[in-house]
């Protein structure tokens, strides 16, 4: 059974850093595209970053240069390193897994990030 479990969310001040984790189980993460999204109540989910099977990484415009995505194959875990956090980075961060980076079939419950100014 495919399962994704996020962790690492917290409340931090502006310009702070966090590392989010997405522990995958039931499958080998490196064989699929994995991605981070974030959601704020009342708004559509926003793409944050993806990590494809060939190691290609993509970032949303709002996080380029500040966030870094990485996949630890040994741990079967996707990480999101977030630096220079801004209040607008606040939201529920969740990961998804897909057959391709345009077709996701499972997501986790998410982990909450709150950035105060």
Q: How would you sum up the global shape?
A: globular
Number of strands: 11
Average pLDDT across residues? 97
Main β-sheet, in a few words? 7 strands, mixed
Order of helices and strands: EEEEEEEEEEE
- What is the alpha-carbon Rg in Å? 13 Å
Number of helices: 0
Uncertain parts:
none
Separation of termini?
40 Å
Structural class: mainly beta
Residue share in helices?
Answer: under 10%
Q: Which strand-content bin applies to the residues?
A: over 45%
Explain the overall architecture.
The chain has 117 residues and is mainly β. It has strands spanning 3-7, 11-13, 18-25, 33-39, 46-51, 57-59, 67-72, 77-82, 91-100, 103-107, 111-116. The strands form two sheets. Strands 2, 4, 5, 6, 9, 10 and 11 form a seven-stranded mixed β-sheet that branches. The protein starts with a strand and ends with a strand.
Short characterization:
This protein is mostly beta strands. The protein is built from no helices and eleven strands.
């Amino acid at each position: 059974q495919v399962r994704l479990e996020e962790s690492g969310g917290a409340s931090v001040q502006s310009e702070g850093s966090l590392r989010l984790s997405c522990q995958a189980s039931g499958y080998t993460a490196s064989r699929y595209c994995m991605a981070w999204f974030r959601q704020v109540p009342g708004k559509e989910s926003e793409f944050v970053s993806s990590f494809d099977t060939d190691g290609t990484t993509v970032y949303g415009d709002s996080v380029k240069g500040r966030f870094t995505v990485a996949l630890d194959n040994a741990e079967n875990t996707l990480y999101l390193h977030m630096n220079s956090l801004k209040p607008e980075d606040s939201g529920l961060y969740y990961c998804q897994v897909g057959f391709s980076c345009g077709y996701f079939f499972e997501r986790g419950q998410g982990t909450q990030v709150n950035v105060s100014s």
